[in-house]
Sequence to fold (290 residues):
Amino acid sequence: MLVKGVTSRFDTTAFAGNLVEGRFLHFPDSGYAHEVVLSKTIADKLDLKTGDDVIVHFFQNPPRFRRLRVTGIYETNLTDYFDSKVVLADLRLLSRLNNWRDSVAGGIEIFVNDLNRIDETGYELAEQIDYDLNVTAVRDKYIQVFEWLQLLSRQVNILLGIILFIVSVNMISIVIILVMERTPMIGVLKALGARNTFIRGIFLMNGARLLGRGMLLGNAIGLGFCYLQHTFKLISLNPHDYYMSYVPVGWSWQTVLALNIITFVIVFAVLLVPTALVMRISPVKAIRFD
Fold:
């Protein structure tokens, strides 16, 4: 196992979502915490639960061991990277075992507020550290996870494109049917002096009204289902394959608003194609159309 040393500055708020049992480490003012946080995978293999004592052996020269109390059990579903190998303990315990000073550690994790600046921050750090130290971005360290996430994002974009294409085709079909059904009306309006742009605008407004109704109903159903999934986690996943036990829902109202605007604008622009049929309809033939 890999014992990862943490301090009181560890972001326990972000880690709370992964803590399935017990609590996090309690850091005393002096000495070090005789506590440890295990993953659910390790705890199940050792038949341990919160409150149990576990003897941790450190392969050193000479070998050392410590009796620690299991205070918490976490689960990230990243079995190959964390759950099967990482144990959380007080950094001062590791410093004591390795005879390190308080300013010495095997590695330092640096968190950034803007994920888009990970590479830029890495370059800045690399220029400031000694030549015998190395900076590794999380994307490079866990490249398979990030490639999997990029694959999911690509599939989402493809799916949205297919849905938008289907919606456009359906709206074109609906407007063509409306034009064919109202062909006598178009002939009468043209005979009364109505311009093509006026008649075309009627069908565009009718198509926009149908599109607006459909989008309102679609948003209500889609957001309602997302709320149910977010609350009750109805759709589950195999965590060993998907790194999560259920389908997560990310609430981004900017994305929802932007998607609705883009859909409305694109589909409304597509409606200009079938409404162009109005310009080719002759008043005499339209009135006699059956």
